[in-house]
Amino acid sequence: MFTQSIAFLQGIYFFITRFYAQNRRIQPLLRDLNQTFWQKEPLSIDLWRRMEKYGTLMPVAVGDLYCLLRGYPMSVREREMQDYLSLFTPVYDEWFDNQNLKHEDIQSALFDPTNFSPTHKMESLSLTLLQRLHALAPKTVEWQTIAHQLTEAQAESCKQTVLNLSLAELNQIMFKKGGYALWMTRLFLDHPMSDAESTVVMQMGGAIQFMDDILDIREDLNAGIRTLVTESIDIQSLMNDYHNEIQKIFDLAALTDFPLKARKQFEARVRLAFGIGTVALKQLHKAQLKYGGTFDPSRLVRSELVCDMEKPINTWKWYQAYRELSDSTS
Q1: Average pLDDT, 10 consecutive residues per value, the chain (330 residues)
Q2: How far is CA 85 from CA 69, 89, 98, 146, 192, in A?
């Protein structure tokens, strides 16, 4: 127990210090973009907050975390690429949701930004970030391949509003969307990727999307988006599936050539990060037991659906979830 407590605190320190440093790093980029594209009127508060959130979280929670697996941190150039990718992600989501654009047009712009002529500031911002990524990206052919897969997965995820979609289809969409999103992040790391590592990327990306769906259950319900979480009838079974997906990350990582010490540190931080999903699932499970019978999220109020990790009690529950994952995964 003492060893797990120390590992938990070390992990908290790892993430907090990096989040703080990354937030300070991203502010000048945000100010520069704001001055460039919104000189007369400021960047919308909602988009600004989303870009700041993604710009702070993604390079650390995804980039720094994943780099633990290879055993050494990001270079200056790699971190710069992650900065621009993280800022582009929320802009891309908003761009993709534009009903006036076909996803083939967006895909063409991803391949080559010069193929697309912007008609408003949002598109100009998207293309500027894309051009900077293209200037930094070393793998043009692979970029096009993954960009194609990612836009296809994004388009397929639009089907999640369809009522007759099976759980197997929802699971496939989840892993494609999350897997190729993480692959895009991995694309901007310079070390060569083996076939064994590619399976880790797809599995971990899918598991990250699984956790996102757990944390976003209220938002998805309000938007009419169906996920494995919104469609679950038993949270305990869902939690078992979630933990199994985390275990698969470790099983696949063991098949790579990365150093054992690096893999073990990676596993410890992954348990910590994914422990937040376990805390949220336990909260949903408590609500299921409260009402009895099968899980029905439509009956739950906001406080039962949303897991507020800023509550002190949830920090303790996070530690308990970390210990549970440490004991159940290896």
Answers
A1: 86 95 94 74 75 94 95 94 91 70 72 75 81 76 82 86 89 95 91 94 97 96 95 97 97 96 96 97 96 92 95 95 88
A2: 20, 6, 20, 14, 19
How long a stretch of residues is the chain?
Answer: 330
In degrees, to the nearest 5, what angle opens at C-alpha 210 toward C-alphas 208 and 213? 110
How far is it, in rounded angstroms, from Cα 287 to Cα 290? Answer: 5
Cα(203)–Cα(213) distance, integer angstroms: 15
Token pair for residue 134?
A: 């293209």
Q: How many secondary structure helices (H) and strands (E) does the chain include?
A: 14, 0
Cα Rg of the chain (Å, integer) = 20
DSSP label at residue 115: G
Tokens at residue 78, please? 């790699």
Q: What is the pTM of this model?
A: 0.93
